[in-house]
Structure formats: structure tokens, C-alpha cells
């Protein structure tokens, strides 16, 4: 074993031998090693390891414990990073906010606001359009992420300056006077703040709108990842990265954090949904929300914080609730369909969830009850990930901008392989809580991060943003079946082919729950199977075969256009 590998595998004294970034909590007598609580539970969950004897390690309170290294790399920010220690200190440490134990809604909002991005204002939206236009014509990754004998550093610097030049030209074309003020007789270094702001706007907008900037965001993050390297930054002469503007940081700078402690925040940020409500109820909720916003904006305004700025902060928190409804609630709805139409202890004829390896493309063998709990646990895990997506995205941003990477052929082209210590720690915490909640866990607990399946934190975020794109079209189809069945011809077709509306719904969800959770989607158990990421791979595989399903015409009749996030007719 060479010295570099030995250094990467070294564990700081007093820290977990598995994750290397958490203080050890248990000592295993049989393994003769120390683990943190999460890793011990994960590694000693099944097999003979269940019978291992553990001892709790006594640790005196010591706030000066040095930060451990993760795979040979410090968990603190790199020298070239613009993410300050103060910024990192404000972020929650390896905890899931939903379980933070806050006693009031205000405490919960304060915690969560640390990673809720601020909504863009009108000026920022204009700059966003310019940034997107520049990224759309940029060939950054095509020029940089290739195998070449030329200097990669020179290619990176050239492409970054080229992108900045495109942005500069677009700014001048859009607003000549503004462009003249910024770029007349000035170098890129002189406009460091402008480029930092415009790149931060792009990152912030993407977090709030995962369906936007589908190709441009990857170029942006890879460019910022390269620009943060010390040699590149010194050659460029300026830094491109600043922390993302969040509700918490915005209010803290202006002395307005007290606004989040007021109980009226719940009414001011509530999302108003029309489901099952009459017009009078909706109007009442709207007036109540508007009144709460006005009261808060007037009460907490000061010399540094205007009422309009407070309103933007409240709207941003409301955007977070809207995000959760779009990305988390589909998991809740699918869980309701699971519990409504299926019982783990009894099987309805023709609607068994059982799967067998080798049959109909399945790569797992589960009985009806086992498959029921496998689906239940997977949907609950996806729900928790969606609930904590802003938190995970903040950690992903840190991992991408603070760690080196290697260019490797993963079988899907050249990809940037990079350590993801912060995201990995948070994911293991979420998984551990999900396993504790489930009691009995079905399937593997392996989380792919920084390998050929999920090369870096950007790929991780992109992967789990697909959950809503998979579930929402299915849910919309199920909800619209009754409406299209009002047509006599369609109703006759449904009755003759599927045995009625209720049976049609059962047929669709049964096929999804069986075939989308069968371990398919790859030719090995590292890329698919029952591992945490393989569950999503199987669901995508089901989506790719939707045209072959007997119920596909029903999807088309309800307005289905695809699983790519496009709007429905």
C-alpha cells in the first residue's frame, strides 16, 4: 500500500473508523474498533455482527477537539475557498432539522432559514437571464473535462475568462450605461464583486427551482469548482465564489432575526391550497396571510431593513413550503395509495406485490409482505431526503467547492470523482433515523457517493431531484382517471379493459410498486439492486418502459407528456 493511500485511510484518534468524521461513540469488542452511533448501527444491523458486544465510550466535554480528516482531506474549508469559518459555523452540524427538537415554530424557522435561499429581486432576475444565456453558449466542460496533453490549468483559465467576457458583452448589450460603468478601462479582477454576485444568483436560483437550468447549472458548478483551486485563483487574479444568500444571513446582517421568532410567521408563510375548500375559506386564508405579512413587515422594520425586504424574506420561506409540496408531498400521496390498496398480511387476488428474481426483469426476490415494507421504507426515505433537500444542497455546495476531484471514466463518460464528506454524513444520519423509525429494514444500506455510480455531490442532488418527476405524473394520472371516465366511450373502455376505475387505479399502482422496486436498471448489484441509490435506478427503469404498459393509453388521455418535468396539458 503506497503512502498516499495509507494517509487517506488513516483515522484521527477518537473518531469513527468507518466515516472518519464523527467522534466515536461505541467500542466493539469483537471488531476491536471504535464507531460513531450511525456507523455502528449500519454495520451491526444484520448477520453475526448483531451479536457483537458494544461498550459506550465515555467522552469528557471538550469543545477544543480538533477537526478530523476525511479520507486524508481536512473537513475545514480549503485555502482557496471563500466560504468562511463563520459561514460554516452558522450551518447545522450533522443533524436533520426536522428532528431538531425545537419547541416552537419560530425555533424551527430560524434553523431552517439558514439554508433557505432568498427569492431573486427584479435586478437579479435580469442578471440571471444574462448568466443563463452565457452558460448556454459556453463549451466549458467540453473543453476542460477531456484527456489532453495540453495544460489543464491553462484551459481552465482560458474558459473562465471566455465566459466572463461573454457575460460582459451581454451586460453591455443589455444596458450600455451600466456596462460602461462596469467594464470601461477595467479588467476582470476589478469586477470581482460583480462576477461573484452573478454566479451566486445562478446557484441560488437553481436551489429554489430544481427544474430550471438543467444543463447550465452543471457547467456553472464545475467552473466554480475549478476556479476555487489555489493555482487557478492565483492565475485569474480574482475569486468567483461567495456564500449563497439565505434568509438567515440576510436578516442577520440587518439585525432582523427577531421577525422569525414571531408566531405570525406561520400564517405569513403558509401556502394556500384550494383542495376541498370553498371560495369563502380561501379568501379568508388569503386575508389572514396578507394581514400577518403587513404586521410583521411594519413591526420589525428598522434603519437597515425595510418593510419590503422583510416581505421578500417571508415570501422566500413561503417558497420553501411550495418546494416541499411539489417534491415531498408526492411521497406522502404514494404512501397513501400503498396503504389504501394493499395490506402486508393479506393478498387480494390479482394484486400481489411479490416479485421473483429472473421474472419480468426483476433482480430481487421478495414476498408480498417483504415487498410492501420495502416500498414503504423507500418512499419514507425519499420523503425525508426531499424534506431536507435545501440542507443537503447547502452541504453539496460546500463539498463541491472545498474538495479536489479526479477525472475518471465511470462507464458513462469522463466524470469528476470527488469526496462528499458533508453530504455523506448527513445522508447516513437520515438513513439511520429512517431505519430506527422502520424497526426492520429491508434491503441494503449502502449509499453511493464519490464512486462510479454517484461521482460527486452534484450528481447526488440531481439524482434525488428526479423523485418528484417520477411520482408526480403517476399521481396526476391517478387523480384524473375519474374525470376522463365521465366520457361514456372512455368509461366503457376502462370498464371492459380494466374492470372499472378502481381496478384501473389498483392495476397502475400495483405495477409501479412491483416493477419500479424490483432492483432492475443495471447488470450488477452495485449500480442497482436494493441499495439506497439502486432503488431510484429501478424506478427510472420503470419510467423508461411506460410505453409498453397496457395502461399507457390512460396516461396519454390524462395529458401525460413524459417524466422530464414538462408541464401537462
TrEMBL record:
Pfam families documented for this protein: DUF2009 (PF09418)
Domain Non-canonical E2 ubiquitin-conjugating enzyme C-terminal: 112-565
InterPro entries (alphabetical): E2_Ub-conjug_enz, E2_Ub-conjug_enz_C
Low complexity: compositionally biased ranges: 74-83
UniProt region (Disordered), positions on chain: 57-83
The protein's name: Non-canonical E2 ubiquitin-conjugating enzyme C-terminal domain-containing protein
Organism expressing this protein natively: Linnemannia elongata AG-77
